[in-house]
Amino acid sequence: MQIKKIALAAAGLLVTMAAAQAAGTLVYCSEGSPAGFDPAQYTTGTDFDAAAETVFNRLVQFQRGGTKVVPALAEKWDISGDARSYTFHLRQGVKFQTTDYFKPTRTFNADDVLFTFNRMLDKNQPFRKAYPTEFPYFSDMGMDSNIVKVEKLGPYSVKFTLKNVDAAFIQNLAMSFASIQSAEYADKLLKSGKAALINQQPVGTGPFVFKRYQKDAQIRYAANKEYWDKVEGPKVDNLIFAITTDPSVRVQKLKAGECHITVNPRPSDIAGLKANSKINVMSQAGFNLGYLAYNVKRKPLDQLPVRQALDMAINRKAILEAVYQGAGQLATSSMPPTQWGFNKNLKNAPYDPAKAKALLAKAGFTKGMDLGLWAMPVQRPYNPNAKLMAEMIQADWAKIGVKAKIVSYEWGEYIKRAKNGEHQTMLIGWTGDNGDPDNWLGTLFGCDAINGNNFSKWCYQPFEQLIQQGRRTTNVAERTKLYMQAQEIVNQQLPITSIAHSTVNQPMLKTVSGFKVSPFGTNSFYGVSIK
Description:
By secondary structure, this protein is of the alpha+beta class. It has 18 helices and 21 strands. It has helices spanning 2-23, 45-50, 110-121, 126-130, 136-140, 143-146, 169-173, 183-191, 247-255, 270-275, 304-312, 316-324, 353-362, 386-398, 411-419, 438-445, 461-471, 476-493; strands at 25-30, 60-62, 69-71, 74-79, 85-90, 147-154, 157-162, 208-214, 218-223, 238-243, 261-262, 279-284, 288-294, 328-330, 369-374, 402-407, 425-431, 496-502, 504-509, 512-513, 529-530. The longest helix has 22 residues, at 2-23. The chain is globular and about 70 Å long.
């Protein structure tokens, strides 16, 4: 009898395993825990992958793996002759997800668009008052001041009116922060006094339904069986984010078949991965920039000669060799060469410790200085080893009398504290989001972005005038001239030291089919299947 029970149990286990394989579970070894699941609140790929690319859709979206904007929750749109109003005609019959914590009673309509954008526009909007938060991307790009109003023209028609022309408006609406929320779900949360749950228990119209989250361990999703896009919908029944912060452990898990796709391998692991017969490594030039930001609101970094000295004391070539190990190229501008409008004529100041030390002395720092140097706690697409980079910069600065204390925090805390301006210098970076130069220059250095992604806290009017004019000009040639001038100013004023553009390597098992590498550094799993 006991033998029979064991045999039955073993058979049951085999049936369960076979059923799981047949159902199809895609496991993604991600690099970190998301700070939350409300895309409008965040700016990093880690957060966007976990929510915007899984649970949500936008009015328009980027074609998977490309930069082309295609219809999504809006089937089409009209632009007025003066380019200051946009009318979106919404897709009908789109269902919001049914979860353990919410069951919708209606399909997606104009009310959801109004709730999504009015929450970002109006600080007195009831839901925002109940759950006060900021929307850094929205404000960094000046959309909070440029969108005059969002109107409901009918159940499936909405109109955006702008104060000024925004040449990248459609591209901006395809970005993760513009993910459409359910007004009905928000109303339920508001009435129950639980508005903050919008960031913990997301509901959208996207390809995957959120199931549960265990911080620093995993996120589980199920396929949205009622997803509106039958062509580019989910091809697996379950999706698991296996949160694995150590890149070497991610590689081992991939080799062992414990995950199907991983992210941000160390440069030293690339050759071994490419030699593995079971693994495919997709590579492309990174649409990114790794850099060191100087907080110009903190003394003595408010002085240009000090920033110039710190900049020319950094041995970029040595960093490129040791940190990027052949998987990157030196940066000479505040945008990558793959971005239109890139100024190819710019050059960095030569590495010159002696001249740097003399500059510091002339600025009154004959005995050097002490500085805080923040280093990211996790590997990012634009920086494969922030700890090593920080140590190399620390050693470079020591040669000119600058004692740098390396500081690090958990990723979410790192970004939060940096936005509050607690740092002096910090390693950070950026991956482009929409293919427009303003997404670099405006988002990283504009005055509107000082409390967001402008970690240098730099607001310089000659630069600001150029990027504002660039936003309001639709002629690409004219915009290019403006942005090339703006890049020159960044190189002259040095709110940052540009370090490198990293090559993106995306390893996955050869059993994975349909995955496409995004130029924007996000990871989408709809349309992806397992052979």
